Amino acid sequence: MSASRTERLLNLLIALLNTQYGLRRSELREKVYHDTTSSEAAFGRMFERDKGELRQFGFDVETVTDKGWGSDDPATTRYRIGKESNRLPDVSLTPAECTVLILAAQLWEQAALGSAARDAVRKLQAAGGLPDAELPPGVQPRIRPAGQAFEDLVAAVHTQHPVSFNYLAGSTGQEETRTVEPWGLGSRFGQWYLVGHDRARGDKRFYRLSRFTSAVTVLDQESFTPPSSFNVRQQLAALPELPVRHALVDVADGALLGLRKHAGPAAGTEGDITDAVAAAPRPGFDRLKVPYRDIETLAEELASYGPKAVVVAPPELHTAVRRRLAAAAAFAAAPVPPIEFPRLAPAKRSRKRTSEDQLKRMLQLVPFLVHNQGLHISEVADRFGITRKELEDDLRILICSGLPEGYPDDLLDIQWDDDHVYIIEDLDLKRPVRFTVDEACALLTGLEALNGLPGLAEGGTLESVTLKLMAAAGEEGLKAAAVSGPEVAPEDSGTLETARNAIRTGAQLRLSYLSPQRDAVTERDIDPQRLYSMDSTWYLEAYCHSAQGLRNFRLDRIQSLEPNGRPVSSAANPAGGFPVKLFTPNDDDAVVVVELTRQGAGLADDYYAERTAALADGHVLAEIRFGSAGWLPMFVAQHGGAVRILQPPALAAAAREWLDAALARYEDHPARQLD
Question: Per DSSP, what are the bridge partners of residue 483?
């Protein structure tokens, strides 16, 4: 949509909202469109497109015909929009319910449903349904979607468009192209799955997003109808968990303490591993028996260990790890593109803002201003995540919009001469429109994910706020059942509770921690600041007195955690409180330039790229700050050809050496078959 079309649609909306008996198409053409040049047929097509756009924004355009002779004549048909049919119902929440709802909305952060969650909360605020609530101190659970594929699939599920992608089949290990009607997307066993109808196979199939080997192509010229009452969580609940199997892995002497923690010695085992295979590891290595359920998940972990771990058996795991290493090495050795970033430009988001975004924002802006009179214009812009100039462009369109051929009092009246924004005339746009399917999905899926989170979403509060939101969302809430996130409850609730209490009381903690970078267990005194999660993996951000800086500790790597009897120091309270971003940047961070393929483009958001630049082949340059650079060769190997380091050159060379050394191990270390 062009800016002029945005203004035209807004005027059409106001005209149809403020007519009791409806307006004929000829009246709309003359008074709203001011169309005198196009043919009747051309105008008719434009009008139908505009009605479709308004329906997408939640407004049902009604047709009114006169009874009797000529009632089917388009010239006598009148159009209007009911004042109540499109509006968000009143939602009254208690402070406790509001706390849970805000946590659910924040789960998505900046991911696919993050902007939808913020829009939904803004609508509830505009409707006066969100009382002041005190969020739990220092606790920020998050959901981590599976990269760009997640973004594209959510859009395809909600718009009901088929998709096409390359997929690594688990049964054959071969890469195949699949065309699928996506019914739903959900998380189970720590993995994201797409559930849909495979057109080539003519049946329902489950696809693990970690096995996608290409970007998702949305076939937006086609559509489909999903099964009625489809619920992706119920579908995934029937998916059986993979059985526990075992792999033989040679591990360098004294290395990889984390892997050794859940593995056992191979020597002397019985059953599925023969004595011949279990014997004789290569010099300088121990042979371990590693339990696993999914080959690709274990392959990702083992690939990150580079030359420190080599798969002995089974052959399919050996192949999966070697494939990742080979892809990473090939990408690392490819010609380096010119490294140029736009000057002073922020990291680009996955989708550019459009005029459609502007109209949606303006429809939220009017009720927001009605309920927040006198806010400073900079604060309003911050609330909507836009610049002051973008906000002023919105306001200028709004004040030029109103009833067709109306008097000055029939225009939207908004004033901001003193930088404080007031709205005097709202032309019945003061109530927010109902939730879109994305907004309903973001909130309801987030509430579902909080189930079982200790001390935050227990009792009846979670259930009551869910029922209220379901009632407000209506039909769009039912469609939200097509997406289901992971539950964010941690495996070890005791460690979480110890950290929460310390944050609440300002107590310093003594920490025993298994550091994968150092491959050692270290003892530290820390000042805890906040807890956050990525799905069910929880992290504790704290000021580490040993490192003299902020560090992030995974809860499942904490060996012990207890108060040391001292209060937190002043170093634990930086100005500005808790940062908005996870992985807080520090002055001593390593600044690294990486190249990301389309499949790995989501890593730019995951690691808060400070600058990005698109390349001609669809790849992305990203400049990212990392607290420690030593683990980055592991990071490159883990992602198997989706990322490579370009700068600094020494770090890029170290990553290539790491990959070459790992591949050399596999060249002279053939796989063995388990009996």
Answer: 185
Q: Which residues have a Cβ under 8 Å from the Cβ of 520 and sit 6 or more positions away?
A: 257, 514
- Beta strand segments in 371-459, E: 375-376, 413-415, 420-425
Residues 175, 178, 181: CA angle, nearest 5 degrees: 155
% of the chain with per-residue pLDDT over 70: 87
E strand spans, 577-619: 590-596, 611-614
Buried-exposed string 524-550: b where 16+ CB fall within 10 A, e elsewhere: bbbbbbbbbbbbbbbbbbbbbeeeeeb
Residues 404/464, Cβ–Cβ less than 8 Å: no
Tell me, rounded to whole angstroms, the distance of Cα 565 from its chain centroid: 39
Dihedral class, residue 202 (left if φ above 0, else alpha if ψ from -120 to 50, else beta): left
Lowest mean pLDDT among 108-112, 131-135, 227-231, 510-514: 108-112
Please provide the average confidence, as pLDDT, over all residues in the chain: 84
Please tell me the predicted confidence (pLDDT) of residue 655.
96
Quickly count: other Cβ atoms within 10 Å of residue 346's Cβ. Answer: 10
Sequence-distant (6+) residues with CB within 8 A of 591 are: 623, 624, 625
Q: What are phi and psi of 445, to 5 degrees?
A: -65, -40
For 303-357, give the secondary structure using H, E and C.
HHCHHHEEEEECHHHHHHHHHHHHHHHHHHHCCCCCCCCCCCCCCCCCCCCCHHH
The candidate with the shortest Cα–Cα distance to 542, out of 524, 558, 528, 559, is 528
> Max CA-CA distance within the chain?
97
Q: How confident is the model at residue 89 (pLDDT cuts 50, 70, 90)?
A: confident
Helix (H/G/I), strand (E/B), else coil: 81? strand
E strands along 351-425, which residues? 375-376, 413-415, 420-425
Which of the 8 DSSP states describes residue 581?
A: S
pLDDT confidence of 470, banded at 50, 70, 90?
very high
State the virtual CA torsion across 596, 600, 602, 605 in degrees, nearest 10.
Answer: -40
pLDDT category of residue 267 using cuts at 50, 70 and 90: low
What is residue 582's DSSP assignment?
Answer: S
Report pLDDT for 70: 52
> Is residue 134 within 8 Å of residue 99, measured between CB atoms?
yes
Task: List, in order, residues 6 or more apart from 549 with CB less than 8 Å away.
Answer: 543, 586, 588
| Distance in angstroms (rounded) separating the CA atoms of residues 172 and 671 | 18
Helix (H), strand (E), coil (C) string for 486-512: CCCCCCCHHHHHHHHHHHHHCEEEEEE
Residues shown for the chain: 675
> Quick one: average pLDDT of 384-390?
86
Integer-rounded Cα Rg, in Å, for the chain is: 28
So what's the pLDDT on residue 675? Answer: 42
Q: What is the pLDDT of residues 134-148, one digit of tens each?
A: 777 778 888 877 667
pTM above 0.70, yes or no: yes
With beta carbons less than 8 A apart as the criterion, state whether 398 and 8 touch: no
The neighbouring-strand residues paired with 188 are 191
